[in-house]
Automatic annotation (TrEMBL):
UniProt KW keywords: Cell outer membrane, Membrane, Receptor, Signal, TonB box
Cell inner membrane is among the record's keywords: no
Record-given protein name: TonB-dependent receptor
Family recorded in the similarity comment: Belongs to the TonB-dependent receptor family.
SUPFAM superfamilies according to UniProt: Porins (SSF56935)
Chain spans, region Disordered: 33-64
Organism: Shewanella scandinavica
Superkingdom of the source species: Bacteria
Pfam families attached to this UniProt entry: Plug, TonB_dep_Rec_b-barrel
InterPro entries with a match to the protein in the record: Beta-barrel_TonB, Beta-barrel_TonB_sf, Plug_dom, Plug_dom_sf, TonB_rcpt_bac
Residue span(s) of domain TonB-dependent receptor-like beta-barrel: 485-955
Cellular location(s): Cell outer membrane
Signal peptide: 1-29
Record domain TonB-dependent receptor plug: where: 98-193
Length: 988
């Protein structure tokens, strides 16, 4: 009997779950397996996970390939070959890692790299609008994940350091690695881990020329429930790789386009940001109770239809030149343009705060989760019809030039120059309408007879009722009362220079030494601006509401689970704005105050001063150097490989700050003119920051205890820098009418990184028809960034220019000032451990009869726990919540089958409850319910080079559900629908 020995990729079949196709020569005996050192060398030659890795000649690779062919080999096709390459990379890598590779451009089936990466053990994703965007590694959120492309640091359009992986088309990425343990030669920055994406190296292609076209149509089955939403989209990609001049010149080009409908129907509960004293009896879920002294009240809720289109165009190019066997020069570029235009229509319900009259409140603890809210003269209770229009234009660029020179048989030198930039222009446009007593009146009056009844039902949709429901679709009652545009523009760019050396030794213990340096210069900037007209809580006489006509609005009914909610008016934004602004819509501006230029007596605050104070720049310069030794020896007869190294990192960070110095030019005050010509001379522009040095040791060891099994040990000190936008300077301090000085700074240019000590141990077993891996990890994190309130803060002693007294403008009475509270971001949130277990198993039934030999199964499971907790009051009552991104249990499983050109798979990804930012609401970190996402795919090879494919994402239409502290306080309930794909792939 012939035994099939699957080289390591059988376990990474979890990465995409495709079947393996074998030829009749199905032998892979144990003795034909390459030694660990030989395979490690092959990895260094073919998988360039780090820009300082040696690149050997193509002839050497061919020779190794020919030698392997003289023994017995397994021949696999298509995606299966890609997965086997992935397992090989994992098995022979020198760190604890997960690997994902594609046989050719366009081979990965996923919409983006975010989807592809979630198929790896210990990795999960946060879905936004139904799409995976941010990834979590080992229970830590995207802010702790460092990302590179072709070994180079990448910046993000998110305004943070968290890469939005949905901007990276899987069709243009040839391989990906997730490093869970670092080594000294890797760029620092990932406490959770480092994600390395790779584009192709054309000179290492098996073919002289290859061309691939991938086209798929797309359909969303919930789009028909959303008025004005697109149901159809498409994916298209093309790529070419070619080698010329006796394989001395290689060229690769790729293009990928995605046009997909953005669809969701959602309920959004808003935070409990107010409280009210209540007398008498109230009701909780168990009946009447004595009412507490205070009840917490939510700001309200939203019921919305979301629709729109997302368009992503990705471009990749590479030129590789090898004029000599020992020298290679490669230039590559990657560009992504991700544009989205979307609408949000429905209702925004405002309960009205403590001034509202509440009848029959229902409580969860001290928080109101049901009752009837009635508007009073002291409340802002209302129901708005919303027609929001959002536009997001994102650009990602990455360019690099790399030279690799094998100076001698032992010495290799690699040099790299790179530039990465990102630009985002997000425009949030709001069109709000309210109910009038009579919209046809000469001076319309806001209808303040508002009554709202509701009852939250936990993770199910709530019961709601409105006394104005009949008016919501009446053109004689509804009037547009406010329009606003709130752009958020940011740019981020980093230039980096790197030089690496590797020297091979003839030594029984140390195989080589590596050392190198890297310098990077990063500049981040953001700009805020605003335009507003009208009033959302009443009708303005100076900026009167707009009377709607029949050509401006359409009646929309809710469908599906939401069908019991009252209908609303979908307003044609262009028609409404043309009627409101016949001479053209004014554009947003950065301004100190109102258009009339009126500042208050002290110049501290005006309506829109935040647009100036929250705009600015961050500068970050990093110089890093490392030294590392690579082991290849034996201990007690056991082969041992690995590395030991130290990385020294010197960081100089600073940010622009506008410091209020009270119109004192001797303190640096300058005349600052805004976009409207308004002058403010109360602020002194300054640059503030710190510099610091870190030492990051690391060790990785692999013990080959048998021919087919090994144990890995790893330990390191790691760091993750704060989100780049949190380093911006926006500190301010003012004195209130009582003379108490209070100040705040959402951000802080003095923030330092997160630090952690981490340890890994894993066991890997590879057998004839599969593989098994078990790993334990432990991280001890020093501290986290938290927003804290410092009472009795010494403002003067900390550099704030504040008055000694204030003067009442009416009476002229002087009041001495006193120190109050300063709220700011600091590195003082208590740290703690994160620890967990990861298991992965793959079984391919290759020894079964021919019809069943393509059957296989793989699964991965991770358990993660942490003592790190934080306190949240977003649900009213204070409650503890876990570390953002942490799910105790994450499971991924795939069943796949292939036979004579037919391949199919079904996969499922489960994660239990976790904490993350609430969907559609910034800065609300809430609890998310557990979820199971299932996908299905089938393909058939019609003829050589031509495959047809059918695919369903989110097969069970799994929604996203969140809550505030307890499930009774509903957060977001968002339904996306299923996505169906049908298309083909053609390769030459």
């Amino acid at each position: 009997m012939r035994h099939c020995k699957l080289s390591v990729l059988t376990m990474a079949l979890a990465t995409a779950g495709f079947s393996v196709v074998y030829t009749p020569q199905l032998a892979f005996a144990a003795e034909t397996t390459p030694t660990q050192q030989e395979a490690k060398q092959a990895q260094d030659d073919n998988i360039k996970n780090d820009t300082n890795t040696n690149t050997k000649s193509v002839e050497t690779n061919k020779k190794a390939s020919d030698e392997a062919a003289n023994i017995e080999r397994i021949e696999v096709k298509g995606y299966s070959k890609s997965l086997i390459d992935s397992l090989d990379a994992k098995r022979y890598g020198d760190t604890v890692s997960e690997q994902l590779s594609a046989d050719d451009l366009g081979a990965l089936p996923d919409v983006s790299m975010a989807d592809a990466l979630t198929r790896l053990p210990g990795i999960s994703a946060v879905r936004t609008g139904g799409q995976a965007a941010e990834i979590n590694i080992r229970g830590m959120s995207g802010g702790f994940v460092f990302s590179t492309l072709n070994g180079r640091e990448q910046v993000s359009t998110s305004g943070t350091r968290s890469i939005e992986f949905d901007q990276y088309p899987s069709e243009l990425i040839s391989s990906a690695a997730v490093y869970k343990s670092p080594k000294a030669s890797l760029i620092e920055g990932g406490v959770a881990g480092t994600v390395e994406l790779q584009t192709v190296s054309p000179l290492q292609s098996d073919k002289d020329h290859s061309f691939l076209v991938n086209a798929r149509g797309m359909y969303n089955d919930r789009a028909s429930e959303v008025y004005g939403a697109d149901e159809y989209g498409h994916r298209l990609s093309m790529s070419y790789q070619g080698k010329f001049f006796d394989d001395n010149l290689g060229v690769a080009l790729g293009y990928a386009r995605l046009k997909q409908p953005s669809v969701a129907t959602q309920f959004i509960g808003l935070a409990y940001n107010d409280s009210k004293e209540v007398d008498g009896l109230a009701n909780d879920t168990n009946g009447p109770i004595d009412a507490p002294a205070n009840e917490y009240i939510s700001e309200g809720f939203e019921l919305q239809h979301l629709g729109g289109v997302e368009i992503r165009n990705g471009y990749m190019g590479a030129i590789e030149w090898a004029p000599r066997d020992n020298f290679k020069l490669k230039a590559d570029a990657f560009l992504s343009r991700f544009d989205s235009e979307s609408f949000a229509r429905g209702f925004r319900v405002k309960f009205g705060g403590s001034g509202a009259a509440i009848a029959n409140p229902v409580l969860d603890g001290n928080s109101v989760i049901g009752g009837t809210f009635n508007r009073t003269s002291k409340s802002y209770t209302r129901v708005e019809t919303v027609n929001d229009d959002n536009q997001d234009f994102d650009e990602v660029n990455s360019f690099g030039l790399n030279a690799d020179w094998q100076v001698t048989d032992r010495l290799n030198i690699a040099a790299d120059i790179s530039y990465s930039s990102a630009k985002s222009n997000f425009r949030n446009g709001l069109l709000w309408a309210n109910v009038a007593v009579d919209a046809n009146a000469d001076t319309p009056v806001f209808d303040d007879n508002v009554s709202i009844s509701y009852q939250l039902n936990g993770l199910n949709l709530p019961d709601v009722g409105f006394n104005q429901a009949d008016a919501f679709t009446d053109l004689d009652r509804v009037m547009v009362s406010k329009y606003g545009i709130y752009p958020y523009e940011n740019e981020d760019a980093v230039k980096a220079y790197r030089l690496d050396f590797k020297y091979d030794l003839e030594n029984d213990y140390i195989s080589s030494v590596e050392f190198g340096v890297r310098y990077s210069d990063r500049n981040y900037s953001n700009r805020r601006s605003v335009f507003e007209y009208g009033n959302d809580g009443a009708f303005s006489s100076a900026e009167p509401p707009l009377k709607l006509t029949s050509d401006m609005a359409s009646v929309v009914d809710w469908q599906g689970e939401f069908s019991y909610f009252p209908s609303y008016l979908a307003i044609d934004l262009d028609a409404a704005l043309a009627a409101w602004f016949p001479e053209g819509i004014p554009q947003p501006v950065q301004t100190w105050g109102n258009a009339d230029g009126v500042l208050d007596a002290k110049g501290y605050t005006t309506n829109y001063s935040w647009t100036v104070l929250q705009s600015g720049e961050v500068f970050e310069k990093v110089f890093a150097a490392y030294a590392m030794v690579n082991f290849d020896t034996e201990i007690g007869g056991i082969p041992v490989t690995g590395n030991l190294g130290l990385r020294r990192v010197e960081t100089d960070q600073s940010a622009t700050v506008l410091e209020n110095v009270g119109a004192h030019p001797e303190l640096g005050a300058q005349y600052i003119v805004d976009d409207l010509g308004i002058v403010n001379n109360y602020y002194a522009p300054k640059i503030k920051g710190i510099d610091y040095v870190d030492y990051l040791p690391s060790i990785n060891l692999s013990f080959k205890i048998t021919e087919d099994s090994q144990i890995r040990l790893a330990a390191a000190k790691v760091m993750s820098r704060p989100p780049i936008n949190r380093l911006a300077g926006d500190a301010s301090a003012t004195a209130n009418s009582d003379g108490v000085i209070n100040g705040s700074s959402t951000n802080n240019p003095y923030l330092k990184p997160f630090y952690a000590d981490q340890y890994d141990i894993s066991y890997e077993k590879y057998f004839d028809e599969g593989a098994f891996v078990a790993a334990l990890f432990y991280k001890n994190i020093d501290s986290f960034i938290d927003t804290v309130a410092i009472t009795n803060f010494d403002f003067k002693g900390n550099g704030f220019n504040v008055p000694d007294y204030i003067v009442d403008p009416v009476t002229g009475v002087q009041t001495s000032t006193s120190n109050g509270t300063y709220t700011t971001a600091m590195n003082n949130a208590e740290g703690g451990y994160i620890r967990g277990l990861e298991l992965a198993y793959t079984q391919v039934f290759a020894s079964l009869p021919d019809l069943f030999s393509g059957l296989g199964f793989n699964a991965s499971y991770s358990y993660t726990e942490s003592e790190v907790q934080s306190i949240t009051s977003l649900g009213g009552d204070s409650a503890t919540q876990s570390l953002p991104g942490l799910s105790n249990n994450v499971l991924s499983a795939t069943l796949f089958y292939g036979y004579e050109g037919f391949e199919t798979r079904i996969s499922a990804r489960y994660r239990d409850a976790f904490v993350s930012e609430q969907v559609a609401i910034n800065d609300q970190v809430v609890n998310f319910d557990s979820e199971t996402v299932m996908d299905y795919q089938a393909s058939y090879q019609v003829m050589d080079g031509l495959n047809v494919l059918f695919q369903v994402n989110n097969l069970t239409d799994e929604p996203t559900k969140s809550y505030f502290g307890t499930e009774q306080k509903t957060g977001t309930l968002q339904y996306f629908g299923r996505e169906f794909f049908l298309g083909f792939t053609y390769a030459l």
